[in-house]
């Protein structure tokens, strides 16, 4: 098993991965908090789930472990949010856990919920 630093230096692995545009997008995503919404677009209230894709704290693998699950949850009537949490050198405890706590607070905030509703109306 390679240590995280050694794994990230494995250029063969990295070169192969970057051939896929979607995987490359995940690898090059800014190393910062972002919550990407996948909302059920029927104007009704729905429960929500926050998806924290894996990636060994080296990257967030949303292409494999985020988007497909968000789309499946949408088909079940559940709003989904894919969390891009801090990784690599910014992944020291408790940064990724604080990113998740921030996402939960954000989605439970009535002001944020109203803004999200207005954005959905504007996109129609």
Describe this structure in words.
This protein is of the alpha+beta class and 124 residues long. It is 49% helix and 12% strand. The protein has 7 helices and 3 strands. The protein has a 3-stranded mixed sheet, sandwiched between helices. It is flat, with a radius of gyration of 16 Å. The N and C termini lie far apart (49 Å).
Q: Report how far the terminal alpha carbons are from each other.
A: 49 Å
How is the main sheet built? 3 strands, mixed
Taking strands numbered 1, 2, ... along the chain, how are they ordered across the largest sheet?
1-3-2
Percent strand: 5-15%
Uncertain spans, ≥5 residues at pLDDT below 50?
120-124
User: Helix proportion of residues, in percent?
Assistant: 40-55%
> What would you report as the Rg, rounded to the nearest angstrom?
16 Å
Shape: flat
Topology as H/E string?
A: HHHEEHHEHH
- Identify the quaternary structure here: single chain
User: What's the helix count?
Assistant: 7
* Total strands: 3
pLDDT averaged residue by residue: 75
Instruction: Decide which structural class fits the backbone.
Output: alpha+beta
Defining key terms:
disordered C terminus; alpha+beta; 124 residues
Quickly describe the structure.
The protein has helices at residues 4-9, 11-17, 21-27, 62-65, 67-75, 95-108, 110-123, and strands at residues 34-38, 48-51, 79-84. It is α+β, with helices and mostly antiparallel strands and 124 residues long. It is flat.
Q: Which SSEs are present, and which pair or pack?
A:
Layout: H1 4-9, H2 11-17, H3 21-27, E1 34-38, E2 48-51, H4 62-65, H5 67-75, E3 79-84, H6 95-108, H7 110-123
Parallel strand pairs: 2-3
Antiparallel strand pairs: 1-3
């Amino acid at each position: 098993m390679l240590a995280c630093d050694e794994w990230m230096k494995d250029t063969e692995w990295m070169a192969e991965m970057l051939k896929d545009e979607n995987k490359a997008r995940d690898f090059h995503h800014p190393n910062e908090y972002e919550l990407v919404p996948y909302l059920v677009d029927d104007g009704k209230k729905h429960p929500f789930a926050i998806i924290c894709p894996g990636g060994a704290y080296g990257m967030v693998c949303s292409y494999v472990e985020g988007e497909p699950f968000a789309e499946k949850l949408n088909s079940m009537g559940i709003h989904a949010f894919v969390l891009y949490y801090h990784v690599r050198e910014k992944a020291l405890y408790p940064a990724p856990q604080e990113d998740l706590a921030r996402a939960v607070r954000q989605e439970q905030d009535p002001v944020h919920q109203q803004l999200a509703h207005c954005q959905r109306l504007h996109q129609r």
